[in-house]
Design goal:
One of its GO terms (cellular component) is endomembrane system. Its EC number is 2.7.11.1. By secondary structure, the protein is of the alpha/beta class. Helix content is 13%, strand content 18%. 29% of the residues are buried. Mean pLDDT is 77; it is low at 101-118, 175-183 and 238-247.
């Protein structure tokens, strides 16, 4: 059963990874002055990161990956002078990557800010060694002060880069917006994807279970259909279906597929599946011969993808 997040005020390390926590991060989290590690990854937390997070003066590691966080990344993250590792991947963050003074920064008179000086965002965090912002909905460009990071830290977003692993424009609500740290984007017209990803309430548990069960059933039906087709038409000419990234002939698997029987089946490219399934990290089932992934295609439909291991003798 999911539970709401509650943090003790005198903690040094808070590791609550994978505990089905729901709700939002309370602003009182900023009062944990001695906190060094805050790990809330792989839960069901929603809402924005409170700006009070910038008051964690001793924090060294923050892990919020694989949740449902929304909103913009707070500039107050730049106040964390001792922060070395920041993992915010696989959420629904929007807006630009905070790097320098920007007119879209909103001050909060009721907040517990740790600094009244110039707010420079991530460019002030000179200790940062690991940053992962992948698979969100961030726009704009990669700040120059973060160009030392690997490109995998930014893939799966809507950034203006030449990286082919960015989201398609259909998932970004239209053409990329030329947004820079000093440009106010708060008046951008809302899109269908924006309204979907800004939902504040957690997804009901029964709906999540229904989605998983539906995905598993669809996956099993597809597996049975594929298995039957392979055995029925095993003597017909084969086509080689590459699954791995390597171009080596050893990495290709040969299976028999009847093109006529599969004529009405919708097909997707590997790149589309890779983005939809979050780089094939969202595993929802496995067997000795297969792995099953859950994905979300553009437009909202959810899919199940199965990776099959076909023995060489077959």
């Amino acid at each position: 059963m999911a539970s709401e997040i509650k943090l003790p005020l005198f903690a040094i390390n808070q590791i609550l990874h994978g505990n089905l926590l729901i709700g939002t991060i309370p602003k009182e989290t900023g009062m944990l002055k001695n906190l060094k590690v805050l790990d809330l990854g792989s839960n069901q937390l929603t809402g924005p990161i409170p700006p009070e997070i910038g008051n964690l003066s001793s924090i060294e590691k923050i892990n919020f990956q694989s949740n449902g966080f929304t909103g913009k990344l707070p500039y107050e993250l730049g106040n964390l002078k001792h922060l070395e590792e920041l993992r915010l991947d696989r959420n629904k963050f929007q807006g630009t990557i905070p790097a320098s003074n920007s007119s879209d920064f909103r001050s909060n008179a009721h907040g517990l800010y740790a600094s009244n000086g110039s707010r420079m965002g991530f460019c002030r965090s000179s200790q940062l060694k690991v940053v992962d912002l992948s698979y969100n909905f961030l726009v704009g460009t990669i700040p120059k002060c973060l160009e030392y990071l690997p490109r995998s830290s930014f893939q799966g977003n809507c950034l203006q880069t030449k990286d082919p692993k960015q989201r398609p424009t259909t998932q970004c609500g239209g053409p990329p917006i030329k947004a820079h740290p000093g440009v106010n984007t708060k008046h951008k017209p809302p899109t269908k994807d924006d309204s979907k990803h800004q939902s504040n309430g957690p997804e009901p548990a029964w709906l999540l279970v229904l989605e998983i069960v539906t995905g598993v059933m669809v996956g099993l039906l597809f597996f049975v259909a594929l298995f039957t087709t392979v055995h029925k038409w095993k003597r017909k000419p084969s086509i080689i279906i590459p699954w791995k990234k390597s171009a080596s002939a050893k990495d290709y698997t040969t299976i028999y597929v009847d093109a006529e029987a599969m004529r009405d089946v919708v097909t997707y490219s590997r790149q589309e599946l890779e983005v939809a399934c979050e780089d094939f990290s969202n595993i929802i089932g496995s067997s000795p011969d297969s792995l099953m992934y859950k994905g979300t295609m553009k437009g909202g439909p959810k899919i199940a993808v199965i990776s099959l291991c076909i023995k060489e003798e077959n």
